[in-house]
Structure formats: structure tokens, C-alpha cells
Amino acid sequence: MKLFNNIAQRNYQSGSIVLLLAGMLLLSACASIHHEKLIPPPLQTDSPAVQVDDVDVLAVSPAMEEFLERYILIYANKQTRLELLTSAVTRSGMLGFHYDEAETLSASEAFEKRAGNCIGFSNMMIALARRAGLDAYYQEVFRRPEWSDFEDDTVLLVKHINVVVETRVATWVVDVSGIKIHPTSRRRIIDDGYAKALYLNNIAVESLLKNDLPTAYAYMTRAIEASKKATDPWVNLGVIYGRNDQLDDAILAFNRALQIEPNEHSAMSNLYEVYVEQDNFESAMELEPKVEKYRRNNPYYLLKLSDEALEQEHFEESISLLQSAIRKKRDDHKLHFALAKTQYLSGERAAAENSLLRARELAPRDMMVFYDRPLDELLAEQ
Description:
Elements: E1 4-10, E2 16-25, H1 62-71, H2 78-88, E3 98-99, H3 107-113, E4 115-116, H4 118-131, E5 135-149, E6 155-166, E7 171-174, E8 187-190, H5 192-209, H6 213-226, H7 232-243, H8 247-260, H9 265-277, H10 281-295, H11 299-311, H12 315-328, H13 333-345, H14 349-362, H15 368-371, H16 375-380
Parallel strand pairs: 1-6, 3-4
Antiparallel strand pairs: 1-2, 2-6, 5-6, 5-8, 6-7
Helix pairs in contact: 3-4, 5-6, 5-7, 6-7, 7-8, 7-9, 8-9, 9-10, 11-12, 12-13, 13-14
């Protein structure tokens, strides 16, 4: 699913968001916990507290009722209902659902917009399926970490959820994201409270990315109330505290995530950053081996290391780090441009031009003017 090097986790594709702030990670996870309930410390701010009303993410709207009555409920056979419903939610189906990783929506909102990310789609599909008398559940899918780069040294760790629907005849997995999931990928059914926590976590992260800490805090604490099993809200709450210079409270939040899931690497990574910020190097060093191994899966951490190597004119090391980063994230123009820059400075002009061409091919439209210039001119601006 930003702190110093924070990771925030967000389920664009299916469930929750994890943010990586300038050294900190925000993520999501779940596991049983038997500790006493911990109330998050207040956010120390002069801004008025933000009140967040509870939301029923699975509420069925009148428009959804009308759809079901007209097209689904007229058939008594549950297998027929399931087949019609799954056909309707495809992009070419009656509802024409469009996958949009930026939209974290409730069931009724996703139905109205005919769009949403994995959480929005899962909310809508489960609400419709259950109203149609079907057994439907949220499923978390464990995939290789996927990272997205944001400004201010923030990195998102993207997670995924989809929907499992069961009938007497078969068990169907419903997923409109288009994400390739390996048949052997680990999966688990998650309860409604956990899924709601992921929804609230995503909403909170959207505010956090805008640096609206009071709103992010309000939604994140709601997410914590929704489920004792979700680690993502605790990790991301730690990032909020870190941004607000409440480092002791950040430590509390990250440790809470580690109580829930001892191998929560995003919590470890962010906790490491706080210890370094506090000059608590002894505690930081205890975490460093696990943190370093985890971070080297993050292409943007490798980019940071390559920049440091480039500053010392260690060109070969810098290029090697960037090539490793690109293998982990092949579609980010920033990584290819960084490689072009390093290759150019090391004297590999032909290779640099090829890397620049690839950056130009991958760049968004608003970056085309930037890349439509000679490489030496672009580097002069760096």
C-alpha cells in the first residue's frame, strides 16, 4: 500500500498503500494480535482537529438495487447470477468498469463512476455479489514488491487485493486490474474490517501525499479502529508523526506494526530512519542488516545510491546500480534518464543517447518538451 525515506503502502491495485518517506516506509500487513488496545497519541498541531464520519464501504445504493433487480435477481440459480454479474463488471460488459489506480472508492461510489482501483472494485463487487445471495470475500494477493516514485523522497509500495466468490459449483476469483498474478503467488482471505482499514489507509495516504497531516491522521486513526490486524495504518501513522517531528510517537507506531507482524520490513526501514535521526545508532545498527536487504529491492533506493556513487565519480558503480534499478522498474523514465546522465559523464556517449531515447519513450506527455533537447543541454541544468 514519506518521512525521511518513507514508504507508504497503498492498494491501488487491490488493497492498501504504503508510503516511503525520505527514508521511511509506510505499508500494510495483517496478523492476529493479542496485546491491549493502543490508542494512537494525538497529533501535535495548531490546526483544528479533522472529524471523519464513519462510512459503510459496502452499502448498496438504490442504483445498485435497481441494477440487481433488473438483470441479476430475476434468475434463481446462483451460478447464473454469478456468471451474469462477473460478465457485467468487465470493461466491455454492461457496467463497463474501468480500472483506475488513483480512485479509492466505496461500493456505491465505484458503481456510480464505473471505475476505481482494486479496493474500489472489490468493495463494489462484494456488495453486489452478497446482495445477490452469493458468498463473496476479499482476498489479498502477495506479489513481488512494486514501487512508485513520488516527490519529496516519498515512495509508494503498492499492494493488491481482489474478490473470491463461491457457489456450490465453483470458486471464482474476480479481478479487473489486468495485473499479472503468478499461479503460485500466496493469497489469503481477509475480513471486512481489514479491507475497510485498507480503504481508510488509502484515503489517508492521499492526504499525506498532499502534506495535509491533520486529515491524514484522522483517516489513519479510523483505519486503526477498523482492524487490529492491519499493519499499514500503523506504519503510515508513523510517517505522519515523523513528518510532524513527533519522533518518539513515530517509534511507538512502527513498533506497534512490528508487534502485529514481526517481519514488517517497511516498519523496520522507517524505524531505522528515526533511530538515525535521533542519533540512536546502536538501535539503528541492530536493524540495518534486514533493512539494507529489503531496501535493495527498491529501485529508488538504488537510484539514491547511484547518485551518491556518481558524486564521487564512481561511474561503473553508479551505472551498475541504475541497471539493477531498471531491472526492477523498467517503465520509469527517471531511471533511464539517470542512466543516460551517468553514461554521458563516464564517456559512453552512444549508450547515453540510447538511454535518453528510452526515457523519452516512457515519459508522460508533459515531459516531452523537457526530453526533446540534446543531452548535454539537459545535463547543464542538473
